[in-house]
Amino acid sequence: MSRLSAGNADPALEWPGSMPRHVAIIMDGNGRWAKRRMLPRSAGHSQGVEAVRRAVSAALEFGIEYLTLYSFSSENWNRPKQEVGYLLDLLRRFANRDVAQLHAQGVRIRIIGERLSLAPDIVSLIEHSENLTRNNSALTLVVAFNYGARDELTRAVQAIARQIGDGTLNPRDVTPAMIEQHLDTRGIPDPDLVIRTSGEQRLSNFLLWQSAYSEFVFIDQAWPDFDRELFAAALRQFMARDRRFGGLAAPVS
Ligand code: IPE
Ligand code: IPE
Ligand code: MG
């Protein structure tokens, strides 16, 4: 299916190409959004949760299979204690308030990132969200929390090294597919499209392995301003790209 409409809300919108299976978003710019309004950074983060809700609804409407949201990086612990505390509380509130509704909408939730060092109540919320929604299939919402790609790859290398160390694995059997099986994203297809808001053009330790052949779209607006129209515009940019994966462009038929 190459032409999809954006749904009943906007029947005029015709997609110019195939919908990406997996869209990953670096939700950036909450602090600057708040600063411009003379508000505390926390106000930007709480408006950011509204943008998360809009992004999930749009992904469901557009028929995207996987939506990954970068919500807290392994480096974000370096922020002031008060801001970190606020972000952790937002996650707690999101898990308590939104997960039931997401479940009702058929959303499956997966959390990626290091979790052993998280507070036990957060680990319970993560496990509950994943277990409750594990059989849903309308959309897989992947939340990257306490996630850093270097940390993820380091944990994968440690797990593989342990198997080599105890003699159950031959180094010759280490393949890209095997490495993927040890990443937090195992079973999730690579992102076709990575979107970053707020004008920064960098990955900030997000999905380094998985984004090897992703398309990138950078949006000037800050994350709290993200909405269905900006999402649709990014998807249309993606659809105009020519993905070659190291090969040659498909001949025009
Ligand atoms: C993104 O917004 C949210 C997180 C990283 C948790 P920022 O908090 O990074 O906002 P800016 O980039 O400082 O504006
Ligand atoms: C990346 O944004 C992390 C998240 C969006 C969760 P940052 O704001 O932390 O990235 P840098 O510091 O600008 O690279
Ligand atoms: Mg930022």
Describe the structure.
With 253 residues, the protein is an alpha/beta fold. The protein has one domain (2-6, 18-147, 190-239): 3-Layer(aba) Sandwich (Undecaprenyl pyrophosphate synthetase), CATH 3.40.1180. It has helices spanning 30-36, 41-62, 81-104, 120-132, 149-165, 176-181, 228-239, and strands at residues 22-26, 66-73, 107-112, 139-147, 193-196, 215-218. It has a 6-stranded parallel β-sheet, sandwiched between helices. Helix 4 links the parallel strand 3 (107-112) and strand 4 (139-147). The relative contact order is 0.19. Mean pLDDT is 95; it is low at 1-8. The chain binds 3-methylbut-3-enyl trihydrogen diphosphate (2 copies) and magnesium ion (MG).
Search tags:
single chain, Undecaprenyl pyrophosphate synthetase, alpha/beta, 253 residues, 7 helices
Number of helices: 7
| Rg computed from alpha carbons, rounded to a whole number of angstroms | 19 Å
Domain count? 1
Main pleated-sheet profile: 6 strands, parallel
- The CATH topology corresponds to Undecaprenyl pyrophosphate synthetase
Distinct bound molecules: 3-methylbut-3-enyl trihydrogen diphosphate, magnesium ion
With strands numbered from the N-terminus, the spatial order across the biggest sheet is: 3-4-2-1-5-6
Mean pLDDT: 95
What structural class should be given to the helix and strand makeup? alpha/beta
